[in-house]
Amino acid sequence: MSNEFLWVVLMVVNFVGILIFYRYAGKTGLYVWTAIATITANIQVVKTVQLFGFVATLGNIVYGTTFLVTDILSENYGKKEARKAVYIGFGSLISMTVIMQIAILFKPDASDFAQPALKTIFSIMPRIAIASLTAYWLSQLHDIWAYHLWKNKFPQTKFLWMRNNFSTMVSQFIDSLVFCFIAFWKVYPQNIFWSIFWTTYIFKWIVAAADTPFLYFAKKLHDSGKINELVVE
């Protein structure tokens, strides 16, 4: 199977996963997805692949879904609930980075086979984490702000596509710019670096455009009372 086919399959799997989490666990499911997505994206991003003739990093899809999550929360619950997802993602990434840095310090047993792979992946994680945390914080808070700016101007449901895409388009440019410069500047040759930057942004934007029908579906589920909100007693 080609990388391009797998990329599309992965995108659909992520979108469907979000709807399943949301349908059966409500806001809590979206918060859980945010934690999963931020951790998974920062592991996948260390792998580079060829997509449509360009060099790109993995992680663009699953990371891009965090913008869909905050847009669903913004649309159905408001700015305050959307910001909670940002805080959860931020805390999840910090926790994972600290825990794994300690884990790779353990002296492995002679029978161990995982240490080299873990060290390869997670030894670069502090730089990736700093880049991701900075980019995530700035871009997500901008996305929430911009989403509500467009929602206040065009509150009708028929303009849902506009606030989803217009807010995310700028937010993901901020995210890609900040992340790539902190994480990859002088790590790769400049031609590879700029290829990663532009493909990162373009692919994230494609994900944002493709998630629009899923945002409409999530709103329909919410408005029709089909969301099973978890209640802690």
| Helix-strand category | mainly alpha
- Terminal CA distance reads 47 Å
What form results from the Cα inertia axes?
A: globular
- Average residue pLDDT: 89
Regions with little confidence, pLDDT below 50 for 5+ residues: none
Strand order of the largest sheet: 1-2
What is the highest CATH level, the class? Mainly Alpha
Helix content: over 70%
Total number of helices: 8
Largest β-sheet summary:
2 strands, antiparallel
What is the succession of H and E elements?
Answer: HEEHHHHHHH
Instruction: Give me the Rg, rounded.
Output: 18 Å
The CATH architecture is Orthogonal Bundle
InterPro entries: YhhQ (IPR003744)
Keywords: Cell membrane, Membrane, Transmembrane, Transmembrane helix, Transport
Family: Belongs to the vitamin uptake transporter (VUT/ECF) (TC 2.A.88) family. Q precursor transporter subfamily.
Main location: membrane
Describe the structure.
This protein has 233 residues and is mainly α. The protein has a single domain, classed as Orthogonal Bundle (Arp2/3 complex 21 kDa subunit ARPC3). The protein has helices at residues 3-44, 60-76, 79-103, 115-122, 125-153, 160-184, 190-210, 212-223; strands spanning 48-51, 54-57. It has a two-stranded antiparallel ribbon with strand order 1-2. Helix 2 runs parallel beside helix 7. The mean pLDDT is 89. It is a multi-pass membrane protein.
